[in-house]
Amino acid sequence: MAKHRILVASYTNSIHALQFDGDASLTAQPSIQVGHHPSWIEFHPQDPSLVFAAIEQTEGKIVAVKYDPSSGNGAIVGEIASGGADPCSLYATNDRLFVANYSSGSLSVLPISSQAPYLLDGPTTTVQLHGSGPNLERQTGPHAHQVLLLPSRGELLVADLGADVVCRFAQQDGIWKLQARIGFEPGSGPRHTAVYDGALYTLNELNSTLSKHRFPPLPAEPSLIAVKPTMANPPPAPTDMLAAELLIPAPNSSFPTAYAYVSNRNDPSPEGDIISIFAIEGVELELVAEVRTGLKHLRGMLFGGVDQRWLVAGGAQGGGVKVFERVDGGKGLKLVAENKEVEAPTGFLWV
Predict the structure, then answer these.
(1) Could you state a single Gene Ontology molecular function term (predicted)?
(2) Would you tell me how many other CB atoms lie within 10 Å of the CB of residue 234?
(3) How far is residue 99's CA from residue 79's CA, in Å, rounded to a whole number?
């Protein structure tokens, strides 16, 4: 079977690497130290050997790493301030890197290039978000948790966990400016978003729910369709169980039906955290499966391979990294490989 290289973001000082052979092997490759908690990594769209890492620290930093395609070894080729504290999400275009700075509650837009020096000294934009929520431990101020660009709409979404909103930005005179905010239930904590077939899906971390809105382009306002718990038997609030990742891979010939895949963290079960699978092509959200992973604190996961057949997931507090195969048309997941030696994985890239 074809071999795949997987880069692993982490709550260590390194970006790790694994080789997956599509059968039962997931072996460690050379890692590279880049700084404190490179928790999110992102390709440059014109050069997949160029990777940007968010260094999640008070004086937030972005590091550029260039990988040698033949050896797989990486080298730091640039770094720059992220424009805020604890950057936790990145989105790269050909010439811009969008950054969600979690602790400072801000959005930064940095100039980049696929050519050296990669991280440019040109003008940057930083937008401070505003607001708070009722959760006194997690919502005393804004917390930008994800940036998602919608190129066909010319719109940028920023999930703000601290203020229970998703912010909608658009360009005006070349500058990204706030146009509208989508409100969510107080204390829900919007973490990640995805858009599919005219609908906005939002994963709410603090109350472990998945929301679905009809989502017309700006300036029209979205309308709520459905809200469902991310698990069949949610515990009573307050709870330490938290939703983390939301993925909706595009349908293809092998998997013609779209599903939403949600990771949940901190399940007390000895069988580890679950990945929940939702049917989304009807009006409602329908939970069709829960897959026990054996992972603890399942934060990041990502689809890859031909037809997005494989799902890699990691336990930041135990269980290492595992690769699952989509089965039953996407309604199920089957474990095919694991590596328990990777420490504190938080996110992934398929090479």
Answers:
(1) 6-phosphogluconolactonase activity
(2) 15
(3) 14
The one-digit pLDDT tens for each residue of the chain (351 residues) are 678 999 999 999 999 999 998 778 999 999 999 999 999 999 999 999 999 999 999 999 999 999 997 788 999 999 999 999 999 999 999 999 999 999 999 999 999 999 999 999 988 999 999 999 999 999 999 999 999 999 999 999 999 999 999 999 999 998 999 999 999 999 999 999 999 999 999 999 999 999 999 999 999 999 999 999 999 988 877 788 999 999 999 999 999 999 999 999 999 999 999 999 999 998 999 999 999 999 999 999 999 999 999 999 999 999 999 999 999 999 999 999 999 999 999 999 998
| Residue in this structure with the two tokens 């689809």, named with its chain if needed | 303
CA-based nearest residue to 147, from 210, 93, 89, 227: 89
Can you read off the two tokens belonging to residue 55? 């260094």
- Name the residue type at position 2: A
Question: Which structure tokens are listed for 306?
Answer: 């031909």
Give CA–CA dist 293/274, Å, rounded. Answer: 6
Distance (Å, rounded) from C-alpha 160 to C-alpha 279? 26
Is 133:189 a contact under the CB 8 Å cutoff? yes
Tell me the CA distances in angstroms from 235 to 208, 266, 267, 317, one per residue in order: 10, 12, 10, 21
Token pair for 3: 């071999």
